[in-house]
Amino acid sequence: MPFWRVYYHLVWATKNREPFITAEIEQRVHAYLVNKAIEIGLYVYAIGGWYDHVHLVVAIPPKLAIADAVKRLKGASSFDLNYQLNLGSRFSWQRGYGVFTLGESQRSRAEEYVRNQKEHHSRQTTNYWLERVDEVDEGPMLKGLVADPVLPLRRALRESELVYGTEDDFPF
Questions:
Q1: Per-residue b or e along 22-41, where b marks 16 or more CB atoms closer than 10 Å to that residue's CB
Q2: Angle at the Cα of 58 (from 96 to 1), degrees rounded to 5?
Q3: Burial class (CB in 10 A: 0-12, 13-18, 19+), 111
Q4: Which class for 123: exposed (0-12), middle (13-18), buried (19 or more C-beta within 10 A)?
């Protein structure tokens, strides 16, 4: 049996950031997302959100692609809301999602952030990187390390190393 410890912070929003997730809807959609995640083999550590988005801290086994897991969560939950609750209006999630990898030592901070979404949004203490939503793919502009036949390997990532420093609050 393989050994793995891979944790992710997932976030996605309602279509057009519509404030659709009322208290009644939130309870249903959060329970549904947790149950569906467990059904497809994910481990859920935290779930939270605001009127227009959800956050999850999960472990996804390496045999599952992140994109497939998120697609199944979003698709099944929107189906449930539209066809099981008969809401009267069509619900859908935004196109895409955000994903951040977490180390074991970061997981508890991510869980706390996710569980305290309402407080963060009420006090406007949200983390910009975890709350933003764009229609375009915002992955790294370059593909990692670039080999140079004369010079040693150099970093070729869009973000500066300072973003990941221990004194910075990115992403938690």
A1: eeebbebbbebbbebbeeee
A2: 120
A3: buried
A4: exposed
The three-class DSSP label of residue 100 is: strand
Q: What pTM does this model have?
A: 0.76
Tokens 């009127």, residue?
Answer: 51
Residue 54, classed as helix, strand or coil, is strand
Strand, helix or coil for residue 84: helix
Which of these ranges, 82-91, 102-111, 154-163, has the smallest mean pLDDT?
154-163
Q: How far, CA to CA in Å, does 156 sit from each of 75, 100, 129, 140?
A: 35, 19, 20, 9
**Residue found under tokens 């404030």:** 19
Residue 31, SS3? helix
Tell me how far apart the alpha carbons of residues 54 and 122 are, in angstroms, rounded to a whole number. 15
Which strand (E) or helix (H) includes residue 56?
A: strand 53-59
pLDDT over 70 (residue 146): no
